[in-house]
Design brief:
The protein is mainly β. Helix content is about 10%, strand content about 40%.
Length: about 350
């Protein structure tokens, strides 16, 4: 494909909110190179960490406009990242050869390939398409399986099922079963319901009810199971950036129902679109140290910052995030804040 490298566009620092600009200066990593050639298997987080002590602050020194920062889709294997230590600033280009060669916008061709993802896709891929969380509104607009073929109790791959409330303009559906509620550990409020993804179905005949074939079955599927339209797969390539608004929420669950986890594992946050979270946001993890009693007085111990997590899928009131680094166990009930 043909790619055009333009001159430097607009300093990201000028686009930052006042709160972001007020942070301490961005620090260059002790062993940061002047240039780095992107290779297959890199992630944006890895590349950021080569140059900066705080990888999530890359957008502050990346000379692109705000929309490109949030969703670049333009960093590919073979491209070169340049570090200008006077800023510091980072920019994309190709090696031009000798120092006396003139620098000017160039057009070059390269084979089409996948852009570099922000974080390891093999870890989060199962979470990107399947319905993970449903709320009352989703449930109200779901289709429902009302029967299986030949009056069988459960159906599997290749079987036929019948469902009501199937939209006439939707042919591909994800089958789910509402499972446990996601509850804020302190307020005890139900924020949403985690869905169990059962498989996928395709409409073979629209009607009331519609006829569908199960094209994938991860578990047995039966009457009463729900369906939501399938989402189109998208490339996840968001540069890490801090939330613009202050955040005070908690880890409400850990994938697979455990109480503690570590780096490169998925956690569920008790904050979502309503609180301003979006894909690519990086949040700080704070350990709750609990309370102590001293001479009859209950004293809350100060929290301790211990890691970072990268938000990769956001719902109305909850979000999924990948723990990027931590100096100890990640625990349900720990706080999340703006880093």
């Amino acid at each position: 494909m043909i790619r055009i490298i333009f001159p430097l566009l607009l300093s990201a620092a000028a686009l930052l909110s006042g709160s972001a600009a007020a942070q301490t200066p961005v620090e260059i990593a002790d062993d940061a190179p002047d240039t780095y050639t992107v290779v297959r298997g890199d992630t944006l987080w890895d590349i950021s960490g080569r140059f900066l002590k705080q990888p999530w602050r890359w957008p502050e020194v990346w000379r692109l406009n705000r929309e490109q920062i949030r969703n670049p889709h333009l960093i590919y294997p073979g491209q070169v990242i340049f570090l200008d230590r006077s800023g510091p600033w980072l920019s994309i280009g190709r090696r031009l050869g000798t120092q006396d060669q003139k620098l000017y916008p160039q057009v070059y061709s390269e084979p089409a390939t996948q852009p570099i993802p922000s974080i390891p896709l093999e870890v989060i891929q199962p979470f990107l398409i399947a319905p993970l969380v449903v709320d009352d509104q989703d449930i109200a607009h779901s289709a429902t399986i009302v029967a299986t073929q030949s009056d069988r109790v459960f159906a599997g791959h290749g079987d036929t099922v019948f469902a009501k409330d199937v939209a006439a303009d939707q042919n591909n559906w994800e089958v789910y079963r509402k499972a446990e509620p996601l509850i804020d550990p302190f307020s005890k409020e139900v924020l949403a319901y985690q869905a169990v993804h059962l498989g996928s179905a395709r409409v073979t005949e629209h009607g009331q009810p519609a006829t569908l074939t199960l094209v994938r079955a991860l578990e047995e599927i039966g009457e009463g199971d729900r369906m939501l339209p399938s989402a189109l797969p998208t490339v996840f390539s968001y540069v890490p950036h801090a939330p613009e608004a202050d955040l005070d929420a908690r880890i409400i669950a850990i994938h697979r129902g455990v109480e503690t986890t570590g780096a490169h594992h998925v956690v569920i946050l008790g904050a979502g679109k309503r609180e301003g979270l979006e894909n690519g946001h990086v949040v700080a993890l704070w350990r709750n140290r609990g309370n102590v009693k001293y001479e009859g007085e209950t004293i809350a111990l100060p929290q301790q910052r211990y890691g970072l997590a990268f938000v990769f899928r956001v719902f109305e009131r909850v979000s999924y995030a990948l723990v990027m680094n931590t100096d100890g166990p990640v625990t349900v009930g720990d706080s999340i804040r703006k880093p």
